[in-house]
């Protein structure tokens, strides 16, 4: 094995700059003459704007400009868009209310953007923002997910009667009903998937510069996908034509979905810098992140399973009401539909599935993808329901899963909900996880805990998810407005070092290392001579960015394809130089050699020859620089079993996660150290959702959890160390044999934790977040019932 | 406006600040030391941790004028010609960072933990001591390992 190639836990190339304080995040960038922007935001959840008086702010010290929605409209800047169409049950596309980047006549959530104040310093802009006088006529607000579409509710948008964005039934309704009618047993569960604020640690920021000499706008953004930002801002918002707009996502301090979307602040900063002919910088603070970053999850559901007398799943029926917030964020519509209902089969061979999703508008921040996006919601529902089924059938949770797993020899497996799973060995992962967790030793541990007055519980979660987003043909059929290929360019410089340009974006995932390993492995170039470049539309040819654990599964393959082209070209150049037939040239470990001889030249020499082609094969272009696009034929389907063990203090309701074991199938691992880190982070995110995190608005739409004082992020002392192992299978659809690992933990963890707590308390269900108060009440109730 | 002077990473510096200017702003904006980050507005996240007179401080919670005359160390002051500080090296070796945003604060807090608790740190001590630093990326597992390894390495040097 190449010591820095595929499978090696190479130390990360990006770490040096982060460790010495030389990261380059958007707020670290300052340019001559820059101004500072602060947004005036709505203090009301729902109100008409009767007038905006900017005179006081304009007269304040240092103020350069105050701009409102009228200015934006006058300049023809388009509203923000949602890029995926979902067809409602009336055959019409989902209802899409206008989403102006600065309010035009109405505000629809606390934090909605009303005006931008630009001044010489941030403090001056902040002071002046206080002086913008907005005359509001406050309207009743719709906040609660479950009742948003009830009759008599205030209607938020004219285009959306009953506050419904879409009603989306999916599956074989009659077949499911027949199966339920004939079932031996039906298990049923009502559950809520709690609203989360995604909370990457770097708040969002934007820096816009306009060059009147070239008529070009350069936008530095906290983005996971610079090319997607450029495309949307150009094609849909008319900010500037693509060739006059450069979007740079420099170092980005975490994303987890929240930095995929095109936000109002980004468009407004880009527009304002041209309008005032000076650079404009906006750096959001944490409160703004809570108010105006897209939130995640927020479902209210009922799930039912029909079973035969052996606990075999016959059919599943799901009803979900999903909150999309006040406006449609960039990919919002697809999250509770395609990314959710298509995963409802889970790891099971349930033959019939029917779901109805009603997506609703409320006077809350827009809701969109958050680590896992739709798949955590699906997994939580399925894996909670399966535990209820086990209880109703008197089976061990492991046993009922085993009885219903898709058999190992059934792959590729066509589920009844569109997806065709590539590969999997679900019993293997379960077995390994049970061993890792010492499942059989649990009852002894529970006894011992009892002697200390603690309730110990264990919970399983066997998840599957769809990653490697995605085949363009598939997402196109579903209503996506873009293709989802990935692009790469691998460029040798004349002296033999290599620059790899990728359209993905790394904001913690370690692409600069993993992708260098791929190239090191394939081309035999020392890893220190390989530089991975991403995040700048002026440098990378194209790209769809990083989300849905797609970067390696899609972007990595594009890199490998570009390397294939270099090898093919190199064979021609080497054949000429070595005076051999092209067909006799072999390539291995960085060397082109003539088969059966010791004649050889290395790839750096070939690159040099390509740039200094004094003696060169006829008809071959000079240069050693290839690009490739890759569009996969299927999603990839990582899967695994996570087992959580908790101890509950019945007197305080405090839950301690005492042991967490995860066995995942990610296919082939390129850098096991990085993969493990991704799993750790995902689990922490999922445990956070299960135990701590809950975004909460009051009935008037004020965000109660708008800071780290009120919104409980998982901290080091809330978590244990994790036991991680793998049960890989080989996905036939992916040329690199990889599946994606960034979201698995956040998907697998919430049901594992809640199953464990329910087990500890001996209750049927407990909603997330299982805070000490919720758990204490449940424990009291359980004690009262059993007394 | 008032003038402040202090020692930052061994160098004497001074600058003009408003009385409301935070120490973190002075470091980032006046001195261009952007390694110290701002992750929140309620003194909760620890992305801004530096050392003032040898003790860890959340630099978003201190005014620049309060640091007049102080001896300040930031993340930029740790590595030298010979290479990374052992704690920085431990973070790299144990994959204790992903996006890197919380990292400067984590490393500066880690050094303070070692200063107060010595070189043999058990897991639960490290986890409790890191309570004031939030990381969204790593799940803390590798940060805890890094702090333990870094502490040990500092003891050996
Ligand atoms: S910036 Fe969050 S604690 Fe200082
Ligand atoms: S490494 Fe990203 S927040 Fe800690």
Biggest sheet strand order of chain A reads 3-5-1-13-10-11-12
How much of the residues of chain A is beta strand, in percent? 15-25%
Strand order of the largest sheet of chain B: 2-1-5-3-4
**What coarse outline of chain A follows from CA principal-axis ratios?**
globular
Proportion in helices of chain B: 25-40%
What does this structure look like?
The complex is a heterodimer of chains A (787) and B (157). Chain A has three domains: 18-139 and 204-284, Alpha-Beta Complex (Aldehyde Oxidoreductase, domain 3); 295-469 and 634-786, Aldehyde Oxidoreductase, domain 4, CATH 3.30.365; 485-630, Aldehyde Oxidoreductase, domain 4. Chain A is built from 20 helices and 30 strands. The N and C termini of chain A lie far apart (63 Å). In chain B, 34% of the residues lie in helices and 16% in strands. In chain B, strand 3 and strand 4 (55-58) form a beta hairpin. Chain B is globular and about 45 Å long. The chains are: A alpha+beta (787), B alpha+beta (157). Chains A and B meet through helix 1 and helix 18 of A and helix 2, helix 3, helix 4 and helix 5 of B. One FE2/S2 (inorganic) cluster sits between chains B (97-103, 135-138) and A (201, 253-254, 508).
